[in-house]
Amino acid sequence: MQPQVEIQLIAAVVAVACALPGVFLVLRRMAMMSDAISHAILFGIVVAFLVVESLGSPFLVFGAALTGVLTVSMVEGLFKTRLVKEDAAIGLVFPVLFSIGVILISRFAGNVHLDIDAVLLGELAFAPFDRLMFNNHDLGPKALWVMGGILLLNIILIVLFFKELKLASFDEGLASALGFSPALIHYGLMSQVSLTAVGAFDAVGSILVVALMIGPPTSAYLLTDRLSRMLSISAAIGVISAVSGYWLAHWWDVNIAGSIATMIGLIFFLIYLFAPRRGVVALLRRRNYQRWHFAESMLAVHLLTHLGQPEEARECHRDEVHKHLNWQENHAKRVVRRALQDGYVHLDKDILRLTAIGKKLAGKAVVE
Amino acid sequence: MNGLNEKHKPPRDQAAIWVEDLTVAYQDKPVLWDVDLAIPKGVLMAIVGPNGAGKTTMIKAMLGLVDPVAGRVEVFGKPFREQRRLLGYVPQRTSVDWDFPTNVLDVVMMGRYGTLGWFRRPGKAEREKAMHALEKVAMDPYADRQISQLSGGQQQRVFLARALAQEAEVYLMDEPFQGVDATTERAIVDLLRELRKQGRTVVVVHHDLQTVPDYFDWVFLLNVRRIACGPVETFFTEENLRLAYGGRVAILGERKPIADDAKSL
Amino acid sequence: MNILTDINFDYTLRIVALGSAILGALSGALGAFAVLRKQSLIGDTISHAALPGIAVAFFFTGNKTTTILLIGAALSGWLATLFILGIVKATRIKLDSALGLVLSVFFGFGLVMLTFIQKRPDANQAGLEKFLFGQAATLLAADVQMMAILAGVAVLALMLLWKEFKLLSFDEDFGATQGFAMNRINLMLTTLLVVAIVLGLQTVGVVLMSAMIVAPAAAARQWTDKLSTMVLLSAVFGVAAGVSGSLLSSRIPKLPTGPTIVLCISTVVLFSIFVAPARGLLWRWLRRRRNRRQFRAEAVLLDLMDMARHHPNLEHPHAAAVLHTLNLDGRAVRNSLAELAERELVRPAGAGLWSLTQAGIAEAQQLERRFQAED
């Protein structure tokens, strides 16, 4: 495989591996935990690195992932004292671990190959050079194997515990009433997040981990209500961002992780604006529609009230109706025009009369 | 039903609060639909309806805290934005963080902030008014108490005192009786009666149907739409309650154009 | 090794310490509001979001003056808060997701810009990277001067809008009903927070700046129940951490300033959480222990009373061993008896026997009445 293809493949695998647990973070309102964990693992990475002196060792991956779980339990412990709120607890814990990590690097690992830039920013372009060798056979980039393994693990865990995760994400109370320990699910998910973050930092850096965990699920959240669909849409958005981000970086010759994050932002922004039901445009259109629809319903109710009554000619005259509805004349004209267009009313010698669907509209407005 | 409804409607400029065509929607779900309401000056009015009927939204819309899709709110004949000083607000007790670092007197003084306006600091006059308001709910011994150390009932009384400190003409209260002790309930009822005696108008979102006839003289039954509104003895009837609480059977009263209303009165 | 003379004579150190002190004061004071409004993590997002602003400012001006870069940082940090607001208000996305998204996307775009600039022949971007992790040593007198002026403006604004900020933090809706434009107040408070964060970037860097917002406030909250005291104390803690952190890192080689300041302030937090009077864990634990001890002593007293009832004389002595069989923990019984004896409610009658005193009988009867009333 060419390095180019390999980089895109790694990026795509990382994207999906991150997006899947990210969905549950977003649903459980713990998105910022990914930020905390991905920063705090620096501490674990440095300590593990000082022990095993290699970045590729599985020991390092698991040692560092433990730091993620440590972060979670420290946050919980702090929160349980009820002396600080949960968000403050998160904001207190990860800077401490990150700071210790930075200090350890500058004191002990100064001349070894490990610098904070790499942890934070990653360098995807170098990922293909670190290869997994077996009996002198080149099995491909190591990052692909590591992240492929983590992705597989994430998929297996989500498939196995789909029901439990779903319940715990939407109704924590019900979940624990049915005997699924919320603590177990919480720590299980957080371990998954930690492991994924550690596996990915080497290739893409911790900031892109945050972007990939939060961005695609947040975008998907605006597109669907169903968990299974949210998972697949998140994965798809992750892959699209990864590949398009790679090419953006390629053309402009810039940092790949950064441009993938930029693409995630761009895709989110488009969805934010144009999502069919929950986008901003849809929101504004719906508000507008509601205004008119409401006015048309009012007109219809008014016409229904006076239908067949002696005063109908006066109350329902096209030029008089605004007086009886207490509307501005222009507003009334526009409402009448729309109601005519929508087929709710028709004109009978300047008298407004309800059509069949107009009667239905009035009926719906009266009895609902 | 409708005829009675209309007979008890005060003219637009004499109503303490006058609501017309109020429609509010969250996302695509209407929470309030075409609500008309005229609250006469000096009544003690309960807003009653099932969960999700839009009671809190109704109060928030009257205070301009939510944007309506359609409709208008007037206070003593003028748009509410010009009359904000006349409105006092008691939000739900649980809407704030009671672990906030402040004491009882400080919270009550917040009721004077609106009158003070931008930049000006509360002084001795504000302190006195706040203390006076605290006395009325029998919380003056607690003036220096940290708010996290209050019981639920005491928290509620602090919120009432804060609204009293506003010296408003119309009070809008969101479930003041929710989860309070008997002493507080008694204190709130006494306070409501005193306010009425002073000619103030009080609107209360209320859950306990049993106590409506005891505590209030006016009732507004709401379930997304207006069900009925008027004196408790006439309108707090089984039939109206069934309409409000009995699912999707609510029938909107005949809707008369507002212009005619004013003429007929 | 005389720190005081060092402060007097080492010019650079003085600049750094002064800069860190200003930063600590400002972020401490404004952080108090962020923490109280449950927006602790917004600082993290703003500081990360400042990166593209720095890069873009350099890109367009080709100028590496701190002022210009910081203006860029402030603008993009501010833009980020608008995005967060726009996302949370218009959609069902929650604050935490919005924070994480804006943080990572802005930062990623900043990286793109930085690497883009690197290619320019005139760009020696080393000056920009100091913002990533902070390099307090690069602070100049002019920088500190600017920090002082901006901090002064911020403090003035804080004093002027004190009442409004308090209202916003405690009960936003109530403020709105009083006719205050709460959006505008929110915007002003956020702007001040952005200024505080941006000023800290050069010293502690993008990643750790959030700690300077959260930690001093979290520590201060434990010591007081008054907003003004909390804000003041938070500022003091910020100054203390800033100065001690920068001194420590200048005395000890290979100790970067930013992380050292963060560890200093975190120590203050830990200390506060344990020993702050009233709220601290230590006091809570002691209180609980005292309650438990008193409860046990009362139980032993009542047991003695129950046994005494079988005798005509209520002061009839009983063996401690019998009390042990009624209670599971022997040591607790011994301790309780000792405590009761100290209060002269029981007295030893020799040979492991104990009897109630008149005062003890009265106390036991009172306790019984109290328990009955509670039933």
Summarize this structure as a short list of keywords or feature phrases:
heterotrimer, A: 368 residues, mainly alpha, ABC transporter involved in vitamin B12 uptake, BtuC, Arc Repressor Mutant, subunit A, 2 domains, two-stranded antiparallel ribbon, two-stranded antiparallel sheet, 17 helices, 4 strands, 75% helix, B: 265 residues, alpha/beta, six-stranded mixed sheet, 10 strands, 24% strand, globular, disordered N terminus, disordered C terminus
Please explain how this structure is put together:
The complex is a heterotrimer of chains A (368), B (265) and C (375). Chain A is mainly alpha-helical and 368 residues long. Chain A has 2 domains: 3-276, ABC transporter involved in vitamin B12 uptake, BtuC (Orthogonal Bundle), CATH 1.10.3470.10; 281-367, Winged helix-like DNA-binding domain superfamily/Winged helix DNA-binding domain (Arc Repressor Mutant, subunit A). Helices cover 75% and strands 5% of the residues of chain A. Chain A has helices at residues 3-27, 31-52, 58-80, 86-108, 116-121, 142-160, 162-170, 172-177, 182-204, 206-221, 227-252, 256-274, 280-305, 312-315, 321-325, 329-341, 356-366, and strands spanning 131-134, 137-141, 345-348, 351-354. Chain A has a two-stranded antiparallel sheet with strand order 1-2. In chain A, strands 3-4 form a two-stranded antiparallel sheet. In chain A, a hairpin with a 2-residue loop joins β3 (345-348) and β4. The radius of gyration of chain A is 29 Å and the shape is elongated. The mean pLDDT of chain A is 87. With 265 residues, chain B is an alpha/beta fold. Chain B has 11 helices and 10 strands. Chain B has helices at residues 2-7, 55-62, 104-109, 113-116, 124-136, 152-165, 182-197, 212-215, 232-235, 238-245, 258-264, and strands spanning 15-26, 29-40, 44-48, 70-75, 78-79, 87-90, 170-174, 201-205, 218-223, 225-231. In chain B, β4 and β5 form a beta hairpin. Chain C is mainly α and 375 residues long. Chain C has 2 domains: 3-277, Orthogonal Bundle (ABC transporter involved in vitamin B12 uptake, BtuC), CATH 1.10.3470.10; 283-374, Winged helix-like DNA-binding domain superfamily/Winged helix DNA-binding domain (Arc Repressor Mutant, subunit A, Orthogonal Bundle). Helices cover 79% and strands 3% of the residues of chain C. Chain C is elongated, with a radius of gyration of 30 Å. Classes of the chains: A mainly alpha (368), B alpha/beta (265), C mainly alpha (375). Chains in contact: A-B, A-C, B-C. The A-B interface holds A 277-278, 286-287, 290-291, 294-295, 297-298, 301-302, 305, 323-326, 365-368 and B 20-21, 23, 25, 27-28, 30, 33-34, 69-70, 224-225, 248, 250-252, 254-255, 257-260.
